[in-house]
Amino acid sequence: MSTLLLRQVAIDTYKENVAYLHRDCKLYRSEGFQALNKIEIHHEGNGQSIVALLNIVDDDAITAPGELGLCEQAFKQFGGIEGVAVRIAHAPVPKSIKAVHRKIGGASLSREDYQGIATDIAANRYSKIEIAAFLVASCEIGLERDEVLYLTQAMIETGRRLDWDEPLVVDKHCIGGLPGNRTTMLVVPIVAAHGMLIPKTSSRAITSPAGTADTMEVLARVELSPNELHEIVRSQRACLGWGGTAGLAPVDDILISVERPLLMDSPGQMVASILSKKLAAGATHLIIDIPIGKTAKVRDRSSALVLRKLFEYVGDHLGLNLEVIITDGRQPIGKGIGPVLEARDVMHVLENDPRAPLDLREKSLQLAGRILEFDPDMRGGQGYTTARDILDSGRALEKMQAIIDAQGRNPTPPKLGRLRQDIVADQSGYVCTIDNLQLARIASLAGAPRDKGAGIDLYKKLGDPVQAGESLYAIFAEFSADFDFAKESAEKDSAYLIGEQYIDERY
User: Fold this and answer.
1) Predicted TM-score (pTM) of this structure
2) β-bridge partners, 88
3) Where along the chain do its domains lie?
4) CATH class held by domain 170-248+257-407
5) Is 426 marked active-site?
6) How far apart are CA 256 and CA 264, in angstroms?
7) Is residue 507 very low, low, confident or very high in pLDDT (cuts 50, 70, 90)?
8) What is the DSSP code string of 97-119?
9) 252, 253, 265, 289: the active-site residue
10) Percentage of the chain exceeding pLDDT 90
11) 419-499 maps to which CATH number?
12) Model confidence over 234-247: pLDDT tens digits?
């Protein structure tokens, strides 16, 4: 078969290998290639091969008839050198796709099935269409608890696994669904200041206006190589990095890249995603935060208890000391929603600033206290007091500044969006309910987390008195189109219900 010369095509295809073949290439018709075929590309020099999804182009500026263009991700996998000779052939169908078909048909899959699926996804043998089929089947049909265990194991085994050579490595995770809930950025410096090892690798937002990594990026670099991560954790006892560059459970990152546009977050996939990342990062002890509320990800206590049992089942079988905490998810935590505003709240708490949101401070202390009690030298019930002392003394702030400097302080921190619109109450009374989902939607429409200065600044919480015309919150955005979308959504539904009397209906 004739060779083609490799060419870089400067397109970010986000977790998917894509190749570009000119329609006038002699191989296009002679070999029967079509758009969206998967092809196997063989490097003539070193024998390396990768699988990619094929796109057909008609523009010589993208790739010429004698060339094969590769997206940025695939080009890097081939060494990043243009002009090398490659051969292409039809890629064989992944062996594990039969297991996906069985899952679509309602079957339960074995450990070997999930190992095969994870291995093929990690090797880029699946297109995003095939991954979407697997995710939808897993969501609609559901995963039995053993399937969640098998998927978790498979995702760990197809990536790097860190070993800190210490008996106690702690971590925490919130399942999400609660805007502004940026407790991790407070828990980590408190715990690290106590001397415990907490190598925190966090995700970017999937369906929310900000993830921990998005918010930390306002302050410092989060895309850390495995070597950098190791050095930072060894020197600071902690880090706050993005898990996507650490090579930990990479299949999870690929699945998330498909889940995000589908707005999917099924319980089984969520448990496998969280625990695979934590175990791959070397955690031995883990706190899971499950907020519950009518507009949170988990709506009621019974659903939270089912999810807790699933976490505990998988954690126990994988040797993870795991504790699940059920918390109040009726409203956002903190004042800000969106990276810049959430980073402001975190720093206010660390600085013991009088403007610091008390709910964010208190929840962070509760979680940090529970983690500190994993320390065998810590007496039961003393964790909260110790965490509070570390925060009040300034030791947590000092540790956070050291972590920021170790990761690389952001020299040009993003600013709050230049466009602002206050959303006001249409009547006097008390704040009776707050819709987390709608607030997250408005903040996302404003541009968060893509535009880090976009989001919502909250002025009223549950039970607060409010006068007609008084501001409930302000929307911030950088771009007019995003700003208009967010305003329109807020005008249709402010996410606030104002009533004559507030009834405290805690979980």
Assistant:
1) 0.90
2) 41
3) 4-90, 97-142, 170-248+257-407, 419-499
4) alpha beta
5) no
6) 9
7) low
8) HHHHHHHHTTPPPPHHHHHHHHH
9) 265
10) 86
11) 3.90.1170.30
12) 999 999 998 777 77
